[in-house]
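In these records, each integer encodes one residue's backbone shape. Here is one protein:

___
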Amino acid sequence: MKNPEVAATEACSGLLGEAGADALGRVLQSWYLVPDAKGAVGASAMAKAVEEARAVPSCVVTGRIGSGKRVAEVRPSVEGAAGGGVRVVRADKERAVAFDCVSARAGAAGSVRLTVAFQDQWDSEGETKLANDYLVIAHAAARALAKELGCRDGGGLPEQASALPAG
């Protein structure tokens, strides 16, 4: 039987990179994670859904700690027509990065506004302690999705989460 655990960098295939994977490990307090039953939904599956103008799948990951578990979700969504630039949205136990994508793969119109949210469904350390990690994960996933879609100028996303506009 195959071990269901994967390294944090593989939890959401092609979506997190090192910075995002490190942040996810800190949030879930586990470096080996279990993707949801659908498997590790990653950047290519998400981009394909955007291109085909259908519901974009999310990546749900569980970190196992002893007999307990902690769950988090990376959830992209199409928000309509492009316009608005890069924006950070803050909510309880969640951070989202919105951006515009102009690309031949961005649906029929060739441009779309995307929001990539990260939600911590288990937060034992408190919102303020993990807030930056939430943002790093959402930013890493947004950059990966922009790259996979071939968004012009990377969707305007900065290289580092610390350079995002305050939200």
User: Anything to note?
Assistant: The CA atoms of residues 72 and 108 lie 31 Å apart. The chain has a mean pLDDT of 86. The radius of gyration is 15 Å. The first strand starts at residue 6 and ends at 7.
